[in-house]
Every structure is written in structure tokens, then in C-alpha cells.
């Protein structure tokens, strides 16, 4: 689920239920992070299809951590294992986006009706736009005998953790904050103000991510192949019973 919108986008004025911000405002950033899951090389030789589970796998992390790349790599490596849940949003479609692939783009009225009809597993708001994952996405994954793979922000994680779906939640982070800032600046598509905004949010998200009990695992995304294998190890450990 995307966290940020273009500076040129207009704010939606739809009347929808208010979701309370879930990132504590008084968090202070620390450059050192703990509670990270690591696996030995022998554990990372997994090549078989993972055990199918009806528990959705939620990937979360700050902008610039590489979570989208990890998700795409998971789908490419295990195409018969995962089904990526495409979120619905009231945000306008960007020129390079494809409806139904990047997001399901809907009007505020359509989103509101879906909320009233209890069609969403979770939904949240950012910059005046709503984002949500419909229950039909999870149902499609189950029908196809796939693991439901979701990309959610902090609000989305907290919302889905309140449901009976029992998600496997994994937080992806860089080695340190300097690495994150370098990745964001290397994109060369953001203004300085936008970069600073993303960094400020990332400070809070990374502090939230390492809080006790928030996630099933916290993975350092230093090496893409290793991160993908580590995600698979977490999924198999969580579903081995």
C-alpha cells in the first residue's frame, strides 16, 4: 500500500469513517536497531514451494527500504505460491500506473459504499486519500491455492491485526538510516521538502517497527536474494504446525 501521493494531487473530501493515527507522536529516532531476525547460510538454501497457508503475509517498511522490490522478487521466484493483493484507493491514477495492477482506482463514493458494506479487510488514510484491501482479494488467493501477499503501511498493519485473519507480519528495514536516506535521494524524483517528509515518517515507522510484539520478524534488506529467502523462512516457521 502506497504511503505517499504527488504534491500536485488534490485532497479528497469524501465523508468516510475517521481512522486514528497509529504512529505514536512522541517517538524519538535512534540510529541503532535491535530484534532483527537472521538466518545462517544453510537455512537460506530453500528452493521448494512454501507451504500454502490461508494466513496473509504482510510486508511493511519505510519508504526506501526496498519492500516493493522484495515483494516483486517473491512473486517472480515463487509464482505458484503467492497471490499479490492489489489495494483499492481513492487517489488519482498516475500516468505510469495501470488500473487493476498497481491499484484498483475508485471514487470516494465507491470506497465509502465498500466501507459501509464491510468489504475491506483493512483500510487507512494518507494525505487525504483512502487505501484498503478487499476481502475478495484474500478469497481469490485461497481459491487459487496461493498465499495472500500484502504491502501495508503501519495503519494497515494495525487494522489487519485486529481481524481474525491472523496475519504473518514482517517488517523490512535497511541496515541503518543513512542507507535509507541515500536510497531516497538516489531516486532524483522528489523535491527536498518531499524527501524530508519521507525521512520524518521513516523515523517514526522504523521506531514503531522495532517495538516489542508488533511484527513476527524484522529483516535487514542488505541483499535481495537473502531477504527473499529469509521471508520464506519466516513464513514456513510460522505455518509449520
TrEMBL record:
CDD domains per the record?
Answer: GMPK (cd00071)
Q: Which organism is it from?
A: Fasciola hepatica (Liver fluke)
Q: Give the matching InterPro entries.
A: GK/Ca_channel_bsu, Guanylate_kin-like_dom, Guanylate_kinase, Guanylate_kinase_CS, P-loop_NTPase
Tagged with keyword Nucleotide-binding: yes
Tell me a GO cellular component: cytosol
Q: Which GO terms describe its molecular function?
A: ATP binding; GMP kinase activity
UniProt-recorded name of the protein? guanylate kinase
Guanylate kinase-like domain: from which residue to which, for each copy?
A: 54-236
Q: Which PANTHER family match?
A: GUANYLATE KINASE (PTHR23117:SF13), GUANYLATE KINASE-RELATED (PTHR23117)
